[in-house]
């Protein structure tokens, strides 16, 4: 149970990091900081959508468009962003075509890298804590 919660927390943190990087790099991608609770809700909805949509889109692509299988992560990121932006919670906005094209790529790359690196940081820290506990 602890590992499941840790993985969920890492996935939420990586999604937040991806959205923050897109906000920093793209002028048409805007996080509404006056409504921080809306942004937190956007992160949670985005992460849940991403984890649900990726397998579903892969199944559909495998059946109808096998050439799209390599881009499932970017496609599910685009669909998740679209849904989150269209929801009336107001934490995030994408206003121009360039941002609609680049945001899924940026968010996908940052989320993928963070999902790989964050567990290494936590596992290393946990191993060091255990080692220090045995020495004491």
UniProtKB/TrEMBL annotation:
It comes from the Bacteria. The chain crosses the membrane at residues 36-57, 64-89, 101-123. This is Phage holin family protein. The keyword Transmembrane helix applies. Keywords: Membrane, Transmembrane, Transmembrane helix.
């Amino acid at each position: 149970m602890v590992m499941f919660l840790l993985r969920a927390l890492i996935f939420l943190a990586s999604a937040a990091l991806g959205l923050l990087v897109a906000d920093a790099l793209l002028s048409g991608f805007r996080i509404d900081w006056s409504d921080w609770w809306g942004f937190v809700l956007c992160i949670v909805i985005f992460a849940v959508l991403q984890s649900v949509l990726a397998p579903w889109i892969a199944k559909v692509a495998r059946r109808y468009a096998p050439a799209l299988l390599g881009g499932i992560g970017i496609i599910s990121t685009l669909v998740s962003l679209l849904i989150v932006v269209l929801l009336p919670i107001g934490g995030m906005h994408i206003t121009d075509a360039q941002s609609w094209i680049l945001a899924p790529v940026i968010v996908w790359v940052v989320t993928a890298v963070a999902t790989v690196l964050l567990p290494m940081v936590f596992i290393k820290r946990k191993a060091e804590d255990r080692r220090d506990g045995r020495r004491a």
